[in-house]
Automatic annotation (TrEMBL):
Lineage: Eukaryota, Rhodophyta, Florideophyceae, Rhodymeniophycidae, Gracilariales
Chain's role: The pyruvate dehydrogenase complex catalyzes the overall conversion of pyruvate to acetyl-CoA and CO(2). It contains multiple copies of three enzymatic components: pyruvate dehydrogenase (E1), dihydrolipoamide acetyltransferase (E2) and lipoamide dehydrogenase (E3).
InterPro entries the UniProt entry points to: THDP-binding, Transketo_C/PFOR_II, Transketolase-like_Pyr-bd, Transketolase_C
Transketolase-like pyrimidine-binding domain mapped to chain residues: 4-179
Summary of subunit composition and partner proteins: Heterodimer of an alpha and a beta chain.
Co-factor requirement: thiamine diphosphate
Organism in which the protein naturally occurs: Gracilariopsis mclachlanii
Pfam families (alphabetical): Transket_pyr (PF02779), Transketolase_C (PF02780)
This protein's name: Pyruvate dehydrogenase E1 component subunit beta
Catalytically driven reaction(s): N(6)-[(R)-lipoyl]-L-lysyl-[protein] + pyruvate + H(+) = N(6)-[(R)-S(8)-acetyldihydrolipoyl]-L-lysyl-[protein] + CO2
Keywords (A to Z) from UniProt: Chloroplast, Metal-binding, Oxidoreductase, Plastid, Potassium, Pyruvate, Thiamine pyrophosphate
Coiled coil feature spans: none
Amino acid sequence: MSQVFMFDALREATNEEMEKDRSVFVLGEDVGHYGGSYKVTKDLHAKYGDLRVLDTPIAENSFMGMAIGAAITGLRPIVEGMNMSFLLLAFNQISNNAGMLRYTSGGNFKIPIVIRGPGGVGRQLGAEHSQRLEAYFQAIPGLKIVACSTPYNAKGLLKSAIRDNNPVIFFEHVLLYNLKDELPNEEYFLPLDKAELVRSGSDVTIVTYSRMRHHVVQAVKEIVNHGYDPEVIDLISLKPLDMDSIAKSLMKTHKLIIVEECMKTGGIAAEIIAQVNDNYFDYLDAPILRLSSQDIPTPYNGKLEKATVIYPQQIIDAVMRIMNSIN
């Protein structure tokens, strides 16, 4: 085992897959000579050269289209969005091409492409750089969506995503790149469609993902001191949602809190609530609580920015509220 930063875990995954398969290549803004805005592609250009680590112009729709075309011909592109917010400029290519071409070609084309990069609310990055695009992409048929949360799952998930024959949107949180974790020295892969049971418990199910996992874990320390035993699930897969894991947990706890950084309207939590109400409503002993970001552009001002997202105390308060509602 070795201690590794998340950005290094992602770089290791990319390097290992590039070494094994010459069809794997990276493209995006500043991924080559500069080594990536968050150093995920550091030193890869020196090792693999211009044709496998391509620096692109600031033209997201163009290089996304080029990557999808390359995937159709049998290559395995990894597209880095310098900031995932910029990929809104390539929304047409991602939705109408990456998501649908395997179906509209009658299965003649595979689209083995990974679209990855930093997103989420950082520290005073401004509204246009603080987007949470998971809700935007959730409705697009044909895409898989993954949100890593630790260096360990980041590496295992990225390796699986690169080998998948379908388009994978791979979300990394801008504030988690310097997170450290122990990684096994041997090769490993993680499934793209399974949630992770972070903590087993019996009183209340807390479902979360990405950076909010760490806020939940911090809150749980205090919740346990209040005498409650929460179960924590990290979704990891945002499309498809692992509803089986959520249902299994609800059969034990009968109470559900969803914590997300996504906006409340049309967010990931909204879809989970809909599916739980459709299929597992009888498991519930209390109304579902949803803790989401405010439905406003993220302010640049630091104090206002902090007020738009969820922090541990709000999670603690939500658990107290749902537990007191049935006592």
